[in-house]
Amino acid sequence: MFLKLGRSRSEPWKRVGGPMPKRWLKDAVGIALVVFHADAGGRFFGIQLKKSSGDKVLDEAAVRAVRAASGKVKRPKELGTHDITIFEEVRFQYGLK
User: Fold this and answer.
1) What is the pLDDT of residue 44?
2) What SS3 state is found at 16?
3) Which of 5, 42, 57, 65 has the CA that lies 20 to 30 A from 71?
4) Which long-range contacts (CB under 8 A, 24 or more apart) does 70-74 make?
5) How many CB atoms lie within 10 A of CB 4?
6) Nearest 5°: CA angle at 81, between 38 and 61?
7) What is the mean pLDDT of each successive set of 10 residues along the chain, which is 97 residues long?
8) What is the pLDDT at residue 13?
9) Is 61 helix (H, G, I), strand (E, B) or coil?
10) Can you state the percent helix, strand and coil of the chain, rounding each to 5?
C-alpha cells in the first residue's frame, strides 16, 4: 500500500514538461528503474537511476518523479521505523490514459 500510494503521488511529476516536438512525443516510451531508500517519515534519499529507459530525458523525469513524491506518502506503522530500499520502475508511454 505504501508503495502504491507513492506511485500515485509521483504520477503527475512524470510529465516531462514544456512543449515537445510531435516527433519526440511519439517516441516518449520507456521504463526507467530507480532505486532509493525511504526513512520512517516517508522521505526518500539516495535516489539513483539503476537502469536507463534508453532516453536521457525520460531518465531525468523518472528521478524527478521520485524526488517529488518524497515525504508526501505516509509510511504505515507496520513497516517499522528502519530505512527500506525500494526499486521502482517508472513507466512512460505518451498518450496512455
Assistant:
1) 95
2) coil
3) 57
4) 70/42, 70/43, 70/44, 70/45, 71/41, 71/42, 71/43, 71/44, 72/9, 72/42, 73/2, 73/5, 73/6, 73/9, 73/42, 74/5, 74/42
5) 9
6) 10
7) 50 48 64 95 95 91 92 86 93 69
8) 43
9) helix
10) 35, 30, 35
For residue 52, give the C-alpha cell. 536507463
The arrangement of strands across the sheet holding 84-93 comes to 44-51, 29-38, 84-93
Length of the chain: 97
For cell 522521505, the residue is 43
Q: Supply φ then ψ for residue 24, to 5 degrees.
A: -75, -40
pLDDT of 29: 84
Pairing assessment for the beta strands 29-38 and 84-93 based on DSSP bridges: antiparallel
Residue 56 grid coordinates? 536521457
Q: Which residues pair with 31 in a beta bridge?
A: 91
